[in-house]
Design a protein that fits this description.
The chain is of the alpha/beta class and about 180 residues long. It has seven helices and seven strands. The relative contact order is 0.20. Bound molecules: adenosine-5'-triphosphate (ATP) and magnesium ion. Adenosine-5'-triphosphate binds next to helix 1 and helix 6.
């Protein structure tokens, strides 16, 4: 089985995938390790990634079961199950600030989380998509949630239950400061 772990930057994909990988003894492929090979240019501080090229590279190295993590992992045209990690934009903002995000880049990412961008993109491309609200959870608890999903206990994680848009967009014009 190929498990895709996706989500807005800072939602805990790498942390969760590392825990999950050791828990179920499954290889973890980190998209960020292939970003340079699939990079076609730079815009500001961000790499422009050729998703087709990235997909080709990843497909080449996949053998058997794998966890694929990264915020582009749901766009590669592979995967049996997609787990979208979600984080309340208020909490996400603190994490991203710590990682040096600011200005437009910070705002774009918070908005993407408030607007369910990764979830919607996943639903457009995959049939088995679930979301986990990680806001108040430790990585250990999140991995327990993932294991429940893998066992078929999916009710709690069906898409559409998480909505921060009202809270986020009613909180004021510029949340990036
Ligand atoms: N469940 C959690 N609770 C609190 N903090 C967390 C949790 N998961 C991750 N973090 C922290 O949030 C930050 C971002 O985590 P991580 O790097 O795993 O996110 P990511 O989704 O892989 O981000 P990116 O897309 O930038 O690679 C790290 O500082 C990490 O320690
Ligand atoms: Mg990461």
């Amino acid at each position: 089985m190929i498990i895709i772990i996706t989500g807005t930057p800072g939602t805990g994909k790498t942390t969760t995938a590392n825990f999950l990988s050791s828990k179920i003894n499954c290889r973890c492929i980190r998209i960020s390790e292939f970003a340079d090979e699939a990079c076609t240019g730079v815009e500001g501080n961000s790499k422009i990634i050729d998703v087709k090229k990235l997909s080709k590279k990843i497909k080449k190295i996949i053998q058997g079961d794998a966890i694929i993590e990264g915020h582009l992992s749901h766009l590669l045209g592979i995967g049996d199950i997609v787990i979208v990690l979600r984080t309340n934009p208020k909490i996400l903002k603190q994490r991203l600030l710590k990682q040096g995000f600011k200005g437009e880049k910070l705002r774009e990412n918070l908005e993407a989380e408030a607007l369910d961008v990764c979830l919607i993109e996943s639903l457009e491309r995959h049939s088995h998509v679930y979301e986990i609200d990680t806001s108040e959870k430790t990585p250990e608890t999140i991995v327990k949630d993932v294991l429940r999903i893998l066992k078929g206990e999916t009710d709690e994680y069906k898409p559409g239950k998480i909505d921060w848009s009202e809270e986020y967009f009613s909180a004021g014009a510029d949340r990036s400061r």
